Amino acid sequence: MVRADTMRVVILGNGRMGRAVASVAGRTGLAVTGVLGRTEVEAGTPGATAALAAADVAVEFSTADSVPGNVARCVERGLPVVVGTTGWYERLGEVTALVRRREGAMLWGPNFSVGVALMSRAAGVLARLAVPLIRAGYEARLTEVHHARKRDAPSGTAIRLQEVLRSSGLDVGVTSERVGTVPGTHRLVLEGPSERLVLEHEARTPEVFAEGALRAAAWLRGRRGVFTFEESLEWDRAEAVAE
Ligand SMILES: NC(=O)c1ccc[n+]([C@@H]2O[C@H](COP(=O)([O-])OP(=O)(O)OC[C@H]3O[C@@H](n4cnc5c(N)ncnc54)[C@H](OP(=O)(O)O)[C@@H]3O)[C@@H](O)[C@H]2O)c1
Question: Partner of 61 for a Cys bridge, out of 1, 17, 152, 183, CB 3.0 to 4.6 A?
């Protein structure tokens, strides 16, 4: 039975991730008001309209071209939206402006696993310390492997890691591989003539991203503004308290 205070979630996108979010939500006792595919959402069917109206928060895992429209649909209804879709970030400025104009709430991120968030922090520290080694002849590279159906390459996560490394003084290339059903593996390699350091994250199942999306949705509920997944982890606040 669903408790009265249970968060009600509508899922935009009925692919691999949309289904994983529905499954994790069901397992953790959250109410899912609908798992909506492209046709229902774009046509605004009565079922889609009712599912959106009944939800407290939306989780969006669709395709890059659909994100701006889906965010607008949510924000117009006063529905906070968590966007997990990747490959649309050239439109982030425009979408952010829309959300702020409407005083809505959006949280976005290319990767909702806490392990990748940790990897990203660690990569920044590693990059700063590795710059002199690169000058001395070491090499750094990023590789990512994903399932064959993934549409964008490099992955949004690899692009984000590349940005983190660049802002810490390290320029690295990305190699992408698309194979089988791999949920997502990211690897940062630092290699010298006689040693090799590897920082690797391997998602074992898509559920890790679904759990992160639902945690982020609970955090976003009741807030206004545009946030990243990392902000929702509140690590900086925890560090400030510890100091
Ligand atoms: N942030 C993270 O942690 C994370 C983790 C994993 C994946 N991702 C990203 O999440 C996205 C989805 O991944 P996936 O594996 O679920 O892909 P997928 O299996 O291809 O599913 C995407 C689904 O969204 C549907 N869709 C397209 N436009 C829509 C709209 N306007 N409204 C509702 N549904 C719509 C597609 O339908 P059609 O086939 O009809 O277009 C498709 O069924 C990708 O961008 C992926 O890179 C992010």
Answer: 17
